[in-house]
Amino acid sequence: MALDLETRDQLIDTVRRFVTERLRPIEAKVAEDDAVPAEVVEEMKGLGLFGLSIPEDFGGLGLNMEEECLVGIEVGRASPAFRSVFGTNVGIGSQGLVMFGTDAQKAKWLPGIASGQIITSFALTEAEAGSDSAAVQTRAVRDGDDYVLNGSKRYITNAGKASLFTVMARTNPDAKGGSGVSAFLVPRDLPGLSVSKPEKKMGQQGAHIHDVTFDNVRVPAWNRLGEEGSGFRVAMQVLDRGRLHIAGVCVGVAERLLVDCVAYASERKQFGQPIASFQLIQAMIADSKTEALAAKALVLETARKRDAGENVTLEAAAAKLFASEMVGRVADRAVQIFGGAGYVADYGIERLYRDVRIFRIYEGTSQIQQLVIARETIKRGG
Ligand code: COS
Q: Are 180 and 171 in contact (CB under 8 A)?
């Protein structure tokens, strides 16, 4: 159920203040240390950020998709690494359980996920199954009351801290593509599960991705999420939702970059006047503003449709495609407007330029979104 407007505004206001007062001032240090301070993570827990999308019955805030996107936009105004801290709990790490879990599975894990005591990860991607996610080779073989998992997952966000993984593994090697895949809730402490050191990456320092390996990991059949063979569809529906969330975050980053650009262009003087008075600078600001507005409208409209129970596979893919490409262009223009200052580290613009690059890749590349949009459009007849 939706929040009343006053409560919603209060929530947005609280998140905005937290972002402005607590997160923005430490962005550069987080990037330098490649770590979000533990006390800030605790404050995020106190604000309920880990449980934004978890139903109230299980201790979360129970936000609908529109509300979650509005919060995502606010959080996007600080370094995207901060969102990553609780992003898997709100999105891809928890939503398989929320949408397809049994009552007993939900009761066991959701309260801990909502409070942030349990960190979750979504383990779909493998070395040979990136865009072609139906090609997962991690095996789950039924053995009595258990499944035995063997295989390896790649680039798994928050795996280093996760205590619960949603793992997509092949239960039927003879079935073609996704239909042979099942989803499992796999606790970190099961023997045979190991997590690699974090990868060094281009941006979003403070957010971490790891390989996860399963070496004869015995998972109780009770932990299977949904029917055997339904794991690919579980993953796709989790991603439909996740893509929309990411699109919201992209809008937040773009809005923040616009504020930074306007402030800098109003201050910086060349040829005797603030560069904001030059029409070629104004053209860049106008293009960025227009695209950010368009992305925001698409994100919020898609979220409202999803909240109304509509299938938004197409619209969520379109929102992710447009918003992630948009924020790439906005960040590029920001570097241009800042000039040399945009290229050096002190102003933080080059950091955001690097940070936003991953939005066009994770939770489905832009090319995968195009594919989904085209297929759905053709299916719908236009
Ligand atoms: N919701 C519900 N069901 C879905 C679905 C969705 N969004 N997308 C696909 N399915 C179902 C299909 O209906 C189909 O069901 P049937 O077998 O009953 O007909 C089944 O899943 C297989 O779908 P499809 O034929 O479209 O699978 P493909 O192998 O062609 O792959 C793409 C589809 C490429 C779209 C998918 O693999 C994908 O999204 N890849 C990117 C993965 C990704 O985002 N990775 C990021 C890692 S997580 S950070």
A: yes
